From TrEMBL:
Cross-referenced PANTHER family: NITRATE/NITRITE SENSOR PROTEIN NARX-RELATED (PTHR24421), NITRATE_NITRITE SENSOR PROTEIN NARQ (PTHR24421:SF10)
Molecular function GO labels: ATP binding; phosphorelay sensor kinase activity; protein dimerization activity
Membrane-spanning parts: 15-33, 45-62, 68-98, 105-121, 127-148
Source species of the chain: Kribbella albertanoniae
Official protein name in the record: histidine kinase
Residue intervals of the Signal transduction histidine kinase subgroup 3 dimerisation and phosphoacceptor domain: 181-245
Amino acid sequence: MNRPAHPRRRSARDWAVDSVVFLFALIFGLIVFEDTAKAESREFLVLLDLVSGLALCFAVWFRRRWPVHLALAASVISIWSETASGPTLVLILSVAVYRPLRTTLLVFAANAVSLVLYLQVKRPPDTGALAIAAIALYIAVAGWGLYIRSRRQLLQTLRDRADRAETVAQLQAEQGQLRAREEIAREMHDVLGHRLSLLSVHAGALAYRPDASTAEVASAAEVIRASAHQALQDLREVIGVLRAPVGELPQPTFADLPALVEASRAAGVPVELRQDVVGALPDHIGRTAYRIVQEGLTNAMKHAPGEQVTIDVTGAPGNGLAVEVRNPAPSKRLGDGRGLLGLAERAALVEGRLEHGRTSDGEFRLYAWLPWPS
């Protein structure tokens, strides 16, 4: 039984629980002792019963640190002390809560033996009924403790899984951002190299043409100036991408949705956007809705180029946000579906749902419902 070298200090909740437990043990033990005091004529046995039982009641305050030791001590004291019945129940419960099942069974067996010895020493009336009631009470208390222990272990397991899932999701997001950064940086490097090459060509032309006219020299110089300025801008963008801390790269919002639709229209896609959204969306819900529409437009441009795309976005606080993208379905569906799979995972992360497929009227429908708290 491994225990920490420095037990944690009691919290306010621990003090409250321990106080209630102590009062229960004390009151229960004194109620049982009252009957014993009336029936027992030997005063020294009555005094021994009361003193040892009260000592065990005060020992309940240390049940978190030494549950097994105190429970075994209680099994011995219970042989002659009925006042110890209250703290004994509490200590059996504590062992079931804080120690494994095997230890609980051993403590339970020790208290069962103690009960047998008690019946031999005290010889109370209705021995059989008393034994059955005591064993039933022991079983109920131990079972309750085992339930509490199992529930705590389950909750801790769920917390650990949630923490691991959150950590994994964060690492995956960071890795995805790093990969995106590398791709952007490589692309910008190629662009920057291209611009510098153009600048070198124009400068070299001036060097090898000393007979160029003033107008030609001015034109080439203007091209060099513009290329150098653009190259400098590209270089700044590369440095900005590489310096941006993880988690602070720009992310689209729901307010960017009209701009996304306009960009698709400019590319030749007939898009109709209908919005009926009341209130300000939470950032993570708006970002998810944007990505769903973006994927729907991408699929439409890939698999049904030039066809009409209809987008409906409706929602209000408390009712959720519904996003629907429709376009004529192609006769043959292309692609590996990874984009839709990613959207389903994205919707699940915000506790929403995603549906997609062909409709009876020959359209491809992408539908998502996202929660929107009131």
